[in-house]
Amino acid sequence: MSKIKERVHTDIKDAMKNKDVFKRDALRLLASAMKQIEVDERKELTDSDMIKIIQKQIKQREDSSTQYKDGGREDLYQKEIAESDLYKSYLPTQLDDTQLEEKLREIIIRVGALTQKDMGKVMGVATKELEGIADGKRINLITKKILG
Predict the structure, then answer these.
(1) What angle do CA 8, 42, 125 make, to 5 degrees?
(2) DSSP structure class, residue 116
């Protein structure tokens, strides 16, 4: 069993013991998403798979929170943000912008990228190498900035 999955299940039990309804329910949603992938794909999830699932859940929460904020539903906006923050705690430590830019410069040199037309080459390598420690949107923005 992946360490992340194990931690999620342990935290669900702790939340139940502590009567933390918000954390229990949010983590149950995450566990449900994990179980769905396991059943659909008939495989045991690795930590890499777990990171992808968590990132997808975070993105869903952030998209929903934007819609709730635009719709004037501050209560639901806050709930989505809190769930997103909870899920982020299960991801590896993210690179800050300076570290990410440094890694991307190395990748750009390695693949021989010179202009924006070479974005595909850079993104392919970068998303694999930086999986879990930087999200695709940040990788894309900083790569565009570097390649000008």
Answers:
(1) 75
(2) G
| Separation between Cα atoms, residue 132 and residue 50, nearest integer Å | 10
pLDDT at res. 148: 82
Please tell me the pTM assigned to this model: 0.78
Q: Which residue in the block uniquely carries the two structure tokens 């190395």? A: 106
Interior CA angle at 36 toward 30 and 39, to 5°?
A: 145
d(CA 68, CA 65): 5
Highest mean pLDDT (candidates 20-24, 124-128, 141-145): 20-24
* 120: Cβ contacts below 8 Å, ≥ 6 apart: none
Place of tokens 């495989």: 43
SS (HEC) of 64-108: HHHHHHHCCCHHHHHHHHHHHHHHHCCCCCCCCHHHHHHHHHHHH
* 115-125 pLDDT tens trace: 889 899 999 99
pLDDT at position 6: 94
Mean pLDDT of the chain: 93
Domains in the chain (CATH in brackets) are: 3-88 (1.10.1510.10), 97-147 (1.10.10.410)
Position of tokens 């999830």?
45
8-state DSSP, 148: -
Cα 71 to chain centroid distance, Å, stands at: 25
